[in-house]
């Protein structure tokens, strides 16, 4: 028996490499299926990648059906300290199921370090090629070119604030965050305040992802007349895993087109 510890320092008692894994985190679902194909026994309704993943669904990340998870007889459940509730993790552990909880990453290196830990520590494999490539791509931070407001929700407006993975992704690509010094990680400023950031020269660019809220050319930019904006993939901005390799190239191209 091996007993690695997760990001929060909790023991994860495993009897050999796991063979029936339930993932409660979309990004971890993609990372595991891409790296150790065939071990996933279940995933959430929001686990959309890789496309065509055919496993039983156990509800949402915030409110998974714990009974459905237990029915799948997993030898490991993957969770995240921000996306999953402590009470659900506790119920699974009390039922005798090992649970690996990944800390909510504040930076790209944090996320890649956590992924390396779970893949090598829980699954006992070498770091996969995509992880090594992503570590190299995201190692350097580009000089700041512009400051942005980055909404992730509307009704009410919610933006990226301090210590967020998405904010660090943009920071490493030369895009500062106008709310990086806010007390909250996900501030909820009124629309007038958001507009005032641009009027005062405190922000130059509006970055609109397509998830969790699906901003489009027709839903989002019209609230900020005459403000330059760019639509980006929410998956590339907020998911950690194999997508980080493509995210570096795709986000770089989109931002360069918006801010030459």
Automatic annotation (TrEMBL):
InterPro entries, alphabetized: ABC_Transporter_SBP, Vit_B12_bind_prot
Keywords associated with the record: Receptor
SUPFAM superfamilies, alphabetized: Helical backbone' metal receptor
Keyword Iron belongs to the record: no
NCBIfam families registered for this protein in UniProt: TroA_like
Family: Belongs to the bacterial solute-binding protein 8 family.
Protein name: Helical backbone metal receptor
Organism classification: Bacteria, Bacillati, Actinomycetota, Actinomycetes, Pseudonocardiales
